[in-house]
Write a structure and sequence with these properties.
alpha/beta, Quinone Oxidoreductase, Chain A, domain 1, Rossmann fold, 2 domains, 7-stranded mixed β-sheet, 6-stranded parallel β-sheet, 10 helices, 29% helix
Length: 340
Amino acid sequence: MSKGPTMKAVSVRDGRGPASSLYINSSVPAPVASAGRVLVAIKAFGLNRMDIMQREDRYPYPLLPESGKIMGVEFSGVVEEVGEKCNLGFKVGDKVFGLAYGGAYAEKISVPERTLIPLPPTLDFKTAAAIPETFFTAIQALHLVGGLAQGESVLIHAGASGVGQSAIQVARHGGASKIIATAGTDEKCALCKELGADVAVNYRKEDFADVVQREFGGKGVDLIIDLVGQSYWHRNAACAAMEARIVLVAALSGSVIDKFDLRALLNKRLSVLATTLRTRNAEYQAALRDKFVETALEHLSTGRMRVTLDRVYDWSQIADAHTRMEANENAGKLVCLVNS
């Protein structure tokens, strides 16, 4: 039986390992443009912390079959082929970007056309590749899950992370009355304020719960977007307003909470909402894509919203990029250019 077409893609030696185990594999089966799907030649892809967990074979959530073994969930590129039953008008040669379940660390990717976004002429490939995961996650947390209403206050943890930076901007343009962000250095706090936070708390110097209570006269904050988890739980509950919502997006500090007192929820009638993005079905992803286009794409294309790029690497330097991300040295997105 003849061998099918192949492509280059990033693989992990022995299936799992440290950043140094990453390499470009030149004999990976290439995807195709099947019915309802578009084949894209990738120009750039963004890095996310989930990629580290997948590289180490310890991803904490069940991956859908569409995820595959190739890492990477956000990309930009050029349409190479349009499959049958595609009717949204994408043509060969169109510049696009989007979110995928996996497979972006590669020369080519096949994705449902409903998840693709036309690339505005004001955005380049490297910037566009840094947008989908963080902005989709922020929009999901603030709007679809958190239900941000006009005039509500918001507390955003890990404000200098990719998701945090996106959430600050989405909240600002979404009608939040006051935004408080947390970050680990004065420089990162300054970045949060530059992006639209009214107050930025260096958590190494000050307790964010005390700052929230001071800023709101003891009434607390309406909506909390938390990527930290365990170590922030008790203080989140303490500084939440009556009937506030806490949206848990990640648990970077751990997932097991000691001395978990349900009275903290009952006393304030708090809602705790947990969400992930990669495990959502294709229909949800498409609806979220539409919400992104509605709420953020024009702002990004005109510069009213922006993505902070920390560093851009050639994909041959993927191990260096992972090492920097793993050490938490980046203040913004890391992007790799494919065949640059």
